[in-house]
Design a protein that fits this description.
Elements (H helix, E strand, L loop, with lengths): L3 E4 L9 H10 L4 E7 L11 H8 L6 E7 L7 H4 L6 E5 L6 H10 L3 E6 L17 E5 L14 H15 L4 E5 L7 H6 L4 E4 L11 H12 L1
Parallel strand pairs: 1-8, 2-3, 3-4, 4-5, 5-6, 6-7, 7-8
């Protein structure tokens, strides 16, 4: 599977979000990463459901990569207009009824992904491999952009990759957290397929998306 890019809208210029989205779309980016937080599962609030829904109306070729960092994530699905083509990631740590939530995502035509936080063991995904299209490995603690990579992240990516490969299923491995210029290729070598890029790479200070996005796409191909 070729490497794919999912720029984080949380790291974009808040006064020029639509312009950035349209620019990314024109550059051939596959996904736009949309972080939603409830200020309970993680101590922060980011893109609200209204914005997550609105993004759907301006996309031409890109698809939404929605990362829900919230308890009872299914309560937000209607307001986000979850549907065909979307990736929807929910956290293993936030769902008491994870299989049912994954089933609800699939019933809406979207691709269910399971996200695991840095302190969660890779093996927890084993019981859900038949229910998902992807795994999101958080290589930073969720909630804020710009955090340093957590020790042991590369080993965790490799372990999740092996579990996926052993399952024989076509499951995407997404990496979210400090996907930087100097670390992204090692993440790729560890088996990552989809890369959430933010302030440590394409949205770095002084960079233009026209330059940074093709550079990152080349590094992760």
């Amino acid at each position: 599977m070729k490497g794919m890019l999912s720029p984080s809208l949380m790291c974009a210029d808040p006064l020029n979000l639509q312009a950035d989205i349209e620019k990314l779309d024109a550059l051939g980016v596959e996904y736009i990463h949309l972080d939603f937080m409830d200020n309970k599962f993680v101590p922060n609030l980011t893109l609200d459901t209204t914005l997550v829904k609105a993004v759907k109306g301006v996309l031409k070729n890109m698809k939404r990569d929605i990362h829900i960092m919230a308890f009872e994530p299914e309560q937000f699905f209607d307001r986000m207009e979850i549907g065909s083509g979307d990736i929807v990631s929910v956290h293993y740590e936030a769902c008491d009824n994870l299989r049912e939530v994954l089933g609800e995502i699939r019933s809406r035509g979207a691709s269910p992904f399971v996200a695991i936080s840095p302190d969660t063991k890779p093996e927890v995904i084993t019981d859900y491999l038949d229910y998902i299209d992807g795994v999101v490995v958080m290589t930073v603690y969720p909630g804020f952009a710009g955090r340093p990579i957590v020790e042991g992240s590369f080993e965790k990516l490799s372990a999740v990759r092996k579990l996926i490969d052993d399952s024989g299923r076509d499951i995407i491995l997404e990496v979210d957290g400090h996907v930087s210029w100097d670390l992204c290729q090692k993440m790729r070598q560890c088996g990552a397929d989809l890369f959430v890029a933010g302030s440590s790479s394409i949205y770095g200070k002084g960079l233009k998306l026209e330059d940074s996005v093709p550079k990152m796409m080349e590094l992760i191909k």
